[in-house]
Task: structure prediction
Amino acid sequence: MALVADIFNQNAWGAVEVQEEIIERVAFKPQLLGTLNLFSPIYSRSRVIGIADTNGVLTLIPTSANGAPPEELIPKGAKIRTMEAVRLAKGSTIYAIELAGVLALPFDEQTVEVADEVTSRTGQIKDDLELTWEHMRFGAVQGKVIDADGATVLVDWFEFWGIDEPEEVNFALNVETTDVRKKCRDIKRAMQKAAKGAWTPGTKVGALVGDEFFDLLVNHKQIKETKLGTEKAPTLENIEGYSSIEIEGIVFINYQGTDDGTTIAIGSEKARFFPIGARNAFQVGWAPASEFKPYLNKRGQEFYGLVLEDKSGRDEWDRVELYSYPLFICTRPEMLRSARAK
Result:
């Protein structure tokens, strides 16, 4: 604890003891799809990324700068389509006057330094950037990458590849006699047939499901009865929210999105099925910050950080900016499936 002037009661000669444990309310940041390592990275030298479609096997290749050696062999007869990486940019200016006299912890020892504030704001912007990446992954595993406004479609991978989106499956989880296990097997069979060689022995099916879908699923009569009297019976007890359960080789994940229930969220009665570990089913292209001379024609990276300073001679401000140029790609949208609880 620290003793500071009693400004709260306008007592200039008094002092109060301040508890330095700060209660900070931090919004939940979804990161599940990032931790699954679904997206194989490729680092392009250009904002435009070429995608080769060879006899149903889709391969991501980088578009090279003029004069650069070819990155990959383009197979004979391949159909090449191009897509431009999107630009994500956010910055914050730290003015000296903002930090004048502002205390930092511990109160009795220091004030806020500009470098500390730059680090803090960089971290805040990086959190926003990572949330945006997760939002784009969330869209890619459903076949459509959506912009931050929640409405603008950046790329519809079904339309891009000329593939009809499969119809939504009704799991009828509100009906006791529904053969839920067969519905799971049917989903998995359909995804395997659509894989065209991308399915490997280690491939699994993941499903992001909403709260009502998850609750109806784990409480369904068939799911409970088939495990009673077996060593798996205890797995039906104490099932927590935002957990997962595996049924017929499908990992059903009660997906926790953002706290507002809209920025990144799955409908309460909905389920989205996607492959985990399928060869190159999802990829991410990282393009370079070619708008800045130091990065022109160089391989892309996940993000770029710039710290700018006031060059007027007044040293009035510093500014931090982060840039990223990603393209989250679904190369096998025909493998994706959707369902509703009832």
In short: DSSP finds seven helices and 21 strands in the chain. The radius of gyration is 26 Å. Residues 1-24, 107-111 have pLDDT under 50 and may be disordered. The CA atoms of residues 95 and 317 lie 4 Å apart.
